[in-house]
Design a protein that fits this description.
Blueprint lengths: L3 H5 L3 E5 L5 E5 L14 H14 L22 H19 L7 H4 L2 H4 L26 H18 L19
Antiparallel strand pairs: 1-2
């Protein structure tokens, strides 16, 4: 696992924006996904194909042919969509459990919560910081988290995130 120093130095990536302007963005620490199950090239290709199909305009069914317009055979769109959903769910369950919250995703809030001149020009001294990004004031993080949890609950009919203590943010710095 990377230290804070690694996250702010080695884990920075520079990207060039459309207008030629450069922007630095943090990246995941090297090796963070080592040892976790991965998709094969073929599996990743299938998921990408599902994404491409789902990204088509409404009413566009390219690459999803069916034998007849009445949709009476086993290759009807409804069955193709159902099987893609089953495959996506199975891939997530077996190969993508690493998609979880890690402190590097929300740990920025400890320093940000102190505020600063850019956000509050009249500030005389920094506020006492807090680490929990959903405790107060962080409408962007808490709003996105709420939507993701709501989608999870709806898609998987699972209310585990409604339980007390289901979403916890452990702040345990070394120093």
């Amino acid at each position: 696992m990377a230290t804070e120093t690694e996250l702010t130095t080695e884990a920075i990536h520079t990207m060039t924006l459309h207008g030629g302007e450069e922007m630095t963005v943090p990246t995941l620490p090297k090796g963070i996904l080592n040892g976790l199950p991965k998709l094969s090239v073929e599996q990743a290709g299938h998921l990408r194909h599902f994404h491409n199909l789902a990204s088509q305009m409404d009413g566009e069914w390219a690459h999803m042919g069916t034998q007849e317009p009445a949709q009476e055979f086993l290759d009807a769109y409804r069955y193709q969509l159902a099987v893609m959903t089953y495959a996506t769910g199975a891939a997530h369950y077996h190969h993508l459990p690493a998609i979880r919250s890690i402190r590097e995703v929300w740990g920025y809030w400890y320093l940000t919560s102190q505020s600063g001149k850019l956000i509050d020009p009249d500030i005389k001294e920094l506020r006492k910081p807090w680490a929990d990004p959903i405790r107060r004031e962080n409408i962007m993080y808490s709003g996105h988290l709420l939507l993701m949890v709501s989608l999870y609950s709806m898609l998987f009919n699972d209310d585990k995130y409604d339980q007390a203590g289901a979403l916890t943010f452990h702040w345990d710095p070394i120093f």
